[in-house]
Amino acid sequence: MMLKNKVAVVTGSSKRTGKAIALALAENGADVVIHYNKSKNEAEKVVKKIRSFGRKSTSVSANLTKPKEVKAMFKQIYNEFKRIDILINNFGNFFIKDISKLTYEDWDFLIDTTLNVTFYCCKACLPYMRQRKFGRIINMGDSEADKMS
Predict the structure, then answer these.
(1) What is the percent of the chain with per-residue pLDDT over 70, rounded to a whole number?
(2) Cα distance between residue 110 and residue 75, in whole Å
């Protein structure tokens, strides 16, 4: 169990790629926090599956485009697990369209739900990792991550 005693947070992990990552982490010994925005039922199923591996798990809901919600989410996670070792930012939205058809509003939405979300999560999580002098952050894009809208 290479990840035994590690706590991982995976954003957008109630479905698809994030779910697969969360389950793989748990199968390798990590306790895993499942983040979702609107997919509570799916998140609870992932939590149940992780617990069936004998790992600790919980789900947390937050709109990651809101810095206060992100900060509160990481505080809640730390208070419950007493550590955060791994953060996987698996969140984002993408438009598959010609750039000439992309509106300014589309662009703002993309920046908010990819770059800003990644920044907010890293900024909120880093103090807990630095406190323990250990942490790993993986940022990735998933066009099918838990949708904001």
Answers:
(1) 91
(2) 26
- Structure confidence by residue, pLDDT tens digits, 67-123: 999 999 999 999 999 999 999 998 766 667 788 988 999 889 888 888 999 999 999
Q: How far apart are CA 99 and CA 125, in angstroms?
A: 34
Instruction: Tell if the pTM clears 0.90, that is, is over it.
Output: no
On whether the CB atoms of residues 79 and 1 are closer than 8 A, the answer is: no
Strands (E), the chain: 7-10, 31-36, 57-61, 86-90, 136-140
Residue of 19, 71, 70, 68 lying closest to 48 (CA atoms):
19
Partners of 86 in the beta sheet? 8, 136
